[in-house]
Every structure is written in C-alpha cells, then in structure tokens.
Amino acid sequence: MIITLAGGGSTFTPGIVKSIALRREELEVDEIRLYDIDGERQRKVGVLVDWILHEDLGTDIKLTVTTDPKEAFTDASFVFAQMRVGKYAMREQDEKIPLRHGCVGQETCGCGGMAYGMRTIFPMVELIDLVEKYAKDDYWILNYSNPAAIVSEACRVLRPDARIINICDMPIAIIDVVCEALQIDKRDVEYDYFGLNHFGWFTSIRCKGEEILPELRDYIMEHEILLPDSYVKNAAKQGAMAGVKKDGGESGAEQNRHTKGSWYYVWKGVYEIMELFPEYLPNTYLNYYLQQKEFVEHSDPERTRANEVMDGREKSLFEGIDRYEATGEIDESIFYAGSHGDWIADLALALKNDTKARFLVICQNKGAIPNMPYDAMVELPAYIGKNGPEVISRDEIPLFQQGLMMQQVNCEKLLVEGCIEGSYEKVLKAFALNKTVPSIKVAKEVLDDMIEANKDYWPELK
C-alpha cells in the first residue's frame, strides 16, 4: 500500500502523515511518498516527516521524498492532493488586490478565490494525467487543493472519468468548535448539511441521536460568537485576543489559531448571520458573501491572513526544522496534527475497507438536491465505500439558499469556461457575477490587476 502526498512541501504534510501512520494497521500502508516541484522546501518537510514516522511513532513505513512524478505515483493506491500554485506570495496578491478595490480579500472566496482557481485548474489536470499514467488502476485521488469548488468543476468538465473525490475540512473544523463549545464528544455527532464548497449550511446537528442545533443556537446568541469559552479565555490569558489587526500571527495551538487576527471576525460573523437568519448554522465562509462590506472594513489591506500564516505557521515550522537539523532537538508544537489529517486519512480508510462511513464530499448533484442543476458540484453527506461516494439525497432547499447557490454555481461555471477557452469576457462575467463584487466596473479593475499579477500562471485571456 503506497500513499503519495502531492504537495509534499505543505505545512500540513506532517500532520497528515501522522494521521496516516496512526492508522497504519487499518490502512496496511507500506510506503509514504512526498511529491513536490519545490525540492528544497519538500526536503525540509521530509526531515520532520521522517522523525514522525521513525523516531516519534517508531514505524517501519518507508518514506520516499521525490520531485520525479514517475517515482512518486508508480503503483500508488492513494494520492492526497494539496497543491498551492504560486505559494503564499500569490495568496498574498489574491487577498490584497481585491481589498485595494474595496472587495473581499480572501484566498478561496470572491476574486481571490477565482484567481487561485485559475492558477490551479491546469496543474490539477496535469496531476490527474500523471496519476492515471503511473498509479494503480483502482487509484483514488483525494483532493484538498483549494479552491475546491472551482477545481472540482474543472475536473468534472476536463477529466470526468478521473477517480477523484474533492473534500474540505472546514465543516469538520466547525463541528470541532461546536463540540468544544457544548462540551460533547464529536464521535457522538452526526449532521446534515447542504451547499457548495465554502458555501453551505448545517441543517441538523445530532449528538447520540438528539438534536442539538437549538442548544447551539442559544449558545451563539448568548456568547455573540461561535467560539468555546476555553478558546477565548486561553487566548486572553496569553495576551493574544483577536480583534487586533496587526497581531503576531498564528500560534501552534489550533484553538489559538481560531481566536487570532482575521479568524476572530469569522467566528463572530456566525452570530451576526444567525441573529437575522437563525434556522441553519452557516459555514463560516458565508460571511464573505453575506457580510462583504463589513469584512472589507474589518480587513487590513497591508496585512491579510496570508501574512498571518507566513509569520505564524510557516515561520514556526521551518524555523523548527532548522533547529532540529542543527541541534537534534524537536519541538512538536511546530506542526499541528488533528482534524485536517484525520479527515483525509479516515476517508482513505473508508474507501479501502468499504466501511460505508459517512463523510461530507463535493460531488455532481445528479438530482440529490432536486431544485439545483444536475451538473452542479454540490457539497453533501455521502456514505463512502470501495466504489466511492453514495450521496444522500434530500428535499428541495429554500429559495434564499437556492438563489445564493445558483449565483455562485454560475459564477464558477463561467470562470472555468473562460479559463479553458481563454475568454476574457467570460472571466469578466464570472467576476461581475460574484456576490463579493459591487459592480461591473470594479470587476474589470480587479480582473485587470489580477491578470498582471498572474501572468506567469494564467492562460492568456483574449
């Protein structure tokens, strides 16, 4: 059993590898391969991964670190894809260019998400072709690469037969926060959800079969935020409470990450949405679409989340690796192992062992939501077995949610068509249709700046 991580130089790689290794018996994994086009960055991450596998956990799992796709993918059963085309330097542009024009600056939503998507579409197709060429016939690509909605739509159009499952861990991160707030065990929780990636709603959350959404709603209204008291108190104790735009970046602890910098307003925004629309629990990313004006006002155009990550998680990880290489001493707080890695490792486990476990996946609608297009890429619960997802259908969704989703679906479809065809007009229409953009004039201004910033990555638009 060979598992390859495409994007092996990611700061999330150590946590994902640890999640795989902790399931080595159920996955029967013999070898983990790291594949990246940035050899030096990946080499450094590989040093930490080697320590995790052989020193920390004492496994005999073979580790291969390579920039050669043939070596990376030959006979692989699973490929975990987590590419970031353009790295954090381009993420910074994705966030700062829209803010200069008064639009939301976010890496997966709005103009920034569309820019990132256009950089990722063709590299993802190239990855699929390489995996198809070298991997086992029954391979699965489990894709974490953002923006997952645009990537999954492009895969549907360009590689419809690829064995790829697109996933996102943000709903799981939200459930983790919910469970911590209500002090319940997430292993006892099951939920219903519908939407698009980074654009959806929890319609039911059950603990041991009992509906807890009303209790959660009361908690959010009382605290005026969806964050556990323990997170807020711990952050305050460390003098790291958010709401300060120029803070020191993310810490190694996951709970601190959610209370710092721009993240604080995301969790605060859940309260502000539910105060007006209390029926469902929104995905936190809906803030950028439903409170675009307020989120622009909260943002610092000179210091966005890209800077927080670069000064926090990125800096901490690579400085920690450098210290380890120099001294032989390891600080485990430099990497985070949790839901992000557990989610994708457990998905692989369900596919391999045909467990029919329930996961949230991004998939072609095919009537699962009756009043959404057949070919829309929606995010829904599914049972996962050896043949892939068995999506759980639901009734028609309310007009408000359907209207928002249709606008976003059409925006993403136009973007993918424009990128594939090299059509400036179609890409401009996608920017103009996006709910985070206030006018067609602003859409054109942002797009023209984005074209200049992405000239080394985007296809030529005519």
UniProtKB/TrEMBL annotation:
Belongs to the glycosyl hydrolase 4 family. Binds 1 NAD(+) per subunit. The active site is at 169 (proton donor), 285 (proton acceptor). Keywords: Cobalt, Glycosidase, Hydrolase, Iron, Manganese, Metal-binding, NAD, Nickel. This is 6-phospho-alpha-glucosidase. Pfam families: Glyco_hydro_4, Glyco_hydro_4C. The lineage of its organism: Bacteria, Bacillati, Actinomycetota, Coriobacteriia, Coriobacteriales. Residues 193-437 form the Glycosyl hydrolase family 4 C-terminal domain. Signal peptide: none annotated. Substrate binds at residues 91, 146, 305. The record marks 107 as: Increases basicity of active site Tyr. Mn(2+) binds at residues 168, 198. GO terms for molecular function: hydrolase activity, hydrolyzing O-glycosyl compounds; metal ion binding; oxidoreductase activity, acting on the CH-OH group of donors, NAD or NADP as acceptor. InterPro entries: Glyco_hydro_4, Glyco_hydro_4_C, Lactate_DH/Glyco_Ohase_4_C, NAD(P)-bd_dom_sf. Its cofactor is NAD(+). GO terms for biological process: carbohydrate metabolic process.
